[in-house]
Amino acid sequence: MCDGSSEAMVEVQRTWEGAHADVAVRPLGVDEDLWLPVQVKSCKEQNSNGCWHFNWVHKYPGMPGPASLAHKLLLAYEDTFFAKDSLDNIILQRSETSQKGEASIAAWAPLLSAAGVEVHQELIYEMTPVDAIWWWNGKRFLIQHKTAILHHVNNGSHLVILQKSAGNKATQLYDEADFDLLAASLPENHHFYLFPMAVLVQRRLVNGHRERRQCTGSAVMLWTREAEAMQRLKEAKRCRGGGRADFWANEYLIDTHAADGGVGRLHAILESAGYST
DNA sequence: CTCAATGACATTCCCTCCCC
DNA sequence: GGGGAGGGAATGTCATTGAG
């Protein structure tokens, strides 16, 4: 990364979308975990993605523009007026909505760790339907995370809304190619659902390659064991109303209160799921 | 037929960030 | 600082269903 020139060099770490700082920088040669949070503003000369021009700081230290930028960053770093912080802290300083989006990912962490699944977030999937990458058994799975919400008209059941935004147009269904698995978690964090893409296609909850539906979204009804039991009781008592709940989603329920903590079920679902190379 | 529970959507709301 | 955009959650709507 350093080409040995006398030019001042900085190390740059990108943060995630929604973080207060766009990047964190540190002079090369500093090993201490002390970084300067930096917000990047776009300028006309660069192409759409304002952040990536920082790569030039690495690649072409001799160039006047970026190099002087690196120099300014170094000066800022040395200035006590600018607070430095650990990289973890800078990356964690995110807006509340972004953190909420992360909640589902965090909720899965213990289970995935127990199951020997490696979790990655890759920058190339930012702003795409892929929220995380799971590695397991030599396979790479693209994951879409969703948190389930309690459905107000239906006591005890939750639902996951499946709709992706499409620019400034109305939301639309996800596409078969968007991800490999849908990982849904309930707010209580005891129950997890993991749906292989093939199942979602088969249930017409996402668009498959041979079928394109125009509706703006779909939903998955989730019944915990308790909610399912209550529902079956109600149906047995022949309550008014004919609709019979469909518990198909429970095939993909992972209960962390199970003897093995749900690891076996998780492995079974991953085993059956498609994956990306 | 009538009614209301259900579930699949559709719409609104809300928060944050960006940019002028 | 405020208006607009965007993303996601919360809430609303309505066709369907089957018992009474």
TrEMBL record:
Gene3D superfamilies: 3.40.1350.10. One of its GO terms (molecular function) is nucleic acid binding. This is Uncharacterized protein. It comes from Vitrella brassicaformis (strain CCMP3155). The lineage of its organism: Eukaryota, Sar, Alveolata, Colpodellida, Vitrellaceae.
